[in-house]
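Colleagues,

For the teaching module next term, I've prepared a clean inverse folding example: a structure given as tokens, and then the sequence designed for it. I'd like students to try predicting residues themselves before seeing the answer, so please don't circulate the second half yet.
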């Protein structure tokens, strides 16, 4: 059973960088052919796919967030991470990591989600 767990600060100041890590257990992030995504849901809004890193290490980003988003991985720890720069209050959301069979889904396994609030 694959499990994903998000971790990181729950509060980030405007203009700073949001950093989250997803720790994966029960399966390797290098296993073909899975893609590891970050998805967020702002309050009262729909889920938004942010980007993904593939089993082979390739990156895929949402065009609307590409300039501010970076996704990396640490295969020795079986983790992948999200960095979102220059955050504003509009980046306040529940952030999820998930495993998909494509770079933007579908997703069978999700983390429980972590609330990140951008506020001074």
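(Answer key — instructors only)
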């Amino acid at each position: 059973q694959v499990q994903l767990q998000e971790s990181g600060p729950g509060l980030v100041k405007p203009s700073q960088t949001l950093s989250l890590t997803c720790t994966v257990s029960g399966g390797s992030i290098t296993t073909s052919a899975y893609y590891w995504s970050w998805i967020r849901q702002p309050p009262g809004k729909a889920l938004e796919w942010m980007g993904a890193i593939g089993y082979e290490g390739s990156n895929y980003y949402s065009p609307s967030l590409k300039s501010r988003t970076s996704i990396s991985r640490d295969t020795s720890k079986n983790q992948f991470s999200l960095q979102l720069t220059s955050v504003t209050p509009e980046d306040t959301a529940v952030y999820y990591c998930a495993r998909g069979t494509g770079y933007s889904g579908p997703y069978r396994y999700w983390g429980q989600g972590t609330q990140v609030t951008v506020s001074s």
